[in-house]
Design a protein that fits this description.
This protein has 73 residues and is of the alpha+beta class. The protein has one domain. Helices cover 29% and strands 8% of the residues. The mean pLDDT is 90.
Length: 73
C-alpha cells in the first residue's frame, strides 16, 4: 500500500534514508543521512531531530527540503 493510497499528501511526507534510491521518485520529500556504524559520537540524528522540528509548521515540506538538499542545475 502506498503512502498516497492511505490518504496522505506528499506535502506532509518526509523520507529519511541513507540511500537516495529509496526516495528517488520523490526527491523533494527526501532527506539524506549518512550511514550509521554504531559510533556513539555520531550526532547526525540529533541534527536531524532539530531539522525535523523546524519543518513541523511548514505548510509544504517539499520547498524547504528542496532548498536545503537538492542542488539547482
Amino acid at each position: 500500500m502506498s503512502l498516497l493510497s492511505e490518504g496522505r499528501d506528499l506535502k506532509d511526507i518526509i523520507i529519511v534514508d541513507n540511500k537516495v534510491e529509496s526516495y528517488a521518485a520523490q526527491l523533494e520529500n527526501g532527506i539524506p543521512i549518512k550511514d550509521f556504524f554504531g559510533n556513539p559520537q555520531d550526532g547526525y540524528l540529533l541534527l536531524l531531530k532539530d531539522y525535523l522540528l523546524g519543518l513541523k509548521e511548514a505548510n509544504d515540506v517539499r520547498p524547504v527540503i528542496k532548498e536545503h538538499f537538492i542542488k539547482n542545475k
